[in-house]
Specification:
mainly alpha
Length: about 500
């Protein structure tokens, strides 16, 4: 899972160096952008393809899972074919499958193309950074890494805004098609500028058995949580079968990776208590964070009457304060016990999410937006020091493998949380609707009043049902927010299982 290490190589200079930096940063920006650009577009995509919003979230989860599974292959692909060739091929594939996503006439084809798009995008994040450090002189490496890191921070903010604006004004297909010209230009310029700076090739072996088992158990698990609702969960033989495949595949994967001489995922790093506690904390917290980030635009569009554009602006507010807070969090993480910063950040996010669980249907843009602005302050406080804490707990030669494994767990937890949150939200809304329907106060009297106002019985019944449905969805949203608040607090407590680190790790090279 390690990235290709940037060995000594001739460097570019002048305008060529600047162009190379911009190309590599743009590639990273594109891949990160696509993790959030579809969040506010789920309702539009679901409506256009004739599927439910919970099925529409497969567009998000399929991309994330494919990306997570392919990341472990990055080191082997670079060693076997060269970092530049893999990078260019990945950009070409990313652009091609982005184009096909926009043409997809059905959800099944769209999910297939998103899987292939994520598979092509997986190596681009680590490789863009590897190549940056390879072509930039050492004295400019910090500036290059800063440019790369800025794209990682800015892309999630622009994703919802860009996705909502394009959906409302052009159409959902455009959120994928905008990748095509950028990918084409980046791949062509990258080949022209970087092919003389190819990394050395080695006859590296890949753990095909481990990779196969990884694909099997992760794929079975994700399909199970995606399809569970419509198949009545474990009342369905299909879901039971997928659960068994995921469980047995995971056990076989653990056994193989812990005994193989060259595992595709180095699970031995989990022997470090601090690393294990940090990864569990990250997985729980990021799952809660990503889950509410997917739920928020769905709720705003389906229950609050927001357009995709307005939902994108609200969702992006969280990222604004996160970017402002990031430099402070990075500086403090080297001076203060990182466990304390992580605890404060997660408790803060939990408390704000708890406040969000008191939402109502009469809230305005500012009422909702100020919560996200406040929540953004907590995100860097837990994410930045948590990464440093985890990597400081492993042996230095294990740092690259540990960083890659963290990224895998984070991405997978976000994908699984998305599926679970969308399913629970939909199920709770249905249950709440049934409960509220039985608690209506004098429904016949209300019907009579509407009849007196000139409504037909069908119109009156429809209006009452619409009111009940709106309150059912609002209540379901608050129930999910409450559950996510509890997860944030639980993650804040888990971090204290990690010992205080004895060294400080530079996390600028961690994607």
């Amino acid at each position: 899972m390690a990235q290709a290490s940037p060995t000594a190589a001739p460097t570019l200079s002048g305008p060529a160096l600047i162009f190379a930096g911009l190309i590599l940063a743009a590639a990273n920006f594109l891949v990160v952008l696509d993790t959030t650009i579809a969040n506010v577009s789920v309702s539009n995509i679901a409506g256009a393809l004739g599927v439910s919003p919970s099925q529409g979230t497969w567009v998000i989860t399929s991309y994330a899972v494919a990306e997570a599974v392919v990341v472990p292959l990055t080191g082997w692909l670079s060693a076997r074919f060269g970092a530049v060739k893999v990078f260019v091929a990945g950009m070409i594939g990313f652009g091609l499958f982005s184009f096909l996503c926009g043409l997809a006439p059905s959800l099944s084809l769209l999910v297939l193309f998103r899987v292939l798009q994520g598979a092509c995008g997986g190596p681009l994040m680590p490789l863009s950074q590897t190549l940056l450090l390879r072509v930039f002189p050492k004295k400019h490496a910090a500036a290059a890494t800063g440019l790369w890191a800025m794209t990682t921070l800015v892309a999630p903010i622009l994703g919802p805004i860009l996705g909502g604006t394009l959906c409302d004004n052009v159409g959902w297909a455009s959120i994928f098609w905008i990748n095509v010209p950028v990918a084409a230009i980046c791949s062509w310029l990258a080949w022209k500028l970087l092919r003389r700076h190819e990394t050395p090739l080695t006859s590296a072996k890949v753990d095909l058995v481990g990779l196969g088992l990884l694909v099997v158990w992760v794929g079975a698990l994700q399909i199970m949580v995606d399809l569970g609702k419509e198949h009545e969960w474990f009342a369905s033989p299909l879901i039971v079968g997928l659960g068994l495949v995921a469980l047995l595949g995971f056990i076989a994967f653990l056994i193989w990776e812990l005994t193989d001489a060259n595992p595709i995922v180095d699970l031995r790093v989990f022997r470090h208590r601090g690393y294990s506690a940090s990864v569990v904390t990250l997985s729980v917290a990021f799952g809660a964070f990503f889950g509410i980030n997917v739920l928020t635009p769905l709720w705003l569009q389906q229950n609050m009457g927001y357009t995709a554009t307005d939902a994108g602006y609200v969702t992006a507010l969280l990222g604004v304060t996160a970017v402002l807070m990031a430099p402070f969090a990075a500086g403090m993480s080297t001076k203060v016990d990182p466990r304390r910063l992580v605890f404060i950040g997660l408790v803060w996010m939990g408390l704000i999410t708890l406040m969000r669980s008191q939402a109502n249907s009469q809230m305005g843009f500012f009422d909702i937006g100020h919560w996200l602005l406040l929540q953004g302050f907590g995100m860097p406080l837990f994410f930045v020091p948590l990464t440093g804490l985890a990597l400081a707990c492993v042996d230095e030669p294990e740092t690259a493998s540990a960083a890659g494994l963290m990224n895998f767990c984070r991405t997978l937890s976000g994908a699984i949380a998305t599926s679970i949150v969308s399913t629970v939200w939909s199920d709770n809304a249905s249950r709440n609707h049934d409960s509220l329907s039985g608690l209506l106060n004098d429904p016949q009297g209300v019907m009579n009043q509407m009849d007196a106002a000139g409504m037909s019985p069908e119109q009156a019944l429809g209006n009452i049902d619409q009111l009940v449905q709106g309150q059912s969805v609002m209540l379901a949203t608050n129930q999910v927010f409450l559950a996510m608040a509890i997860l944030f607090i639980a993650a804040a407590l888990i971090i204290w299982l990690a010992p205080r680190p004895t060294r400080v790790v530079d996390t600028s090279a961690v994607h």
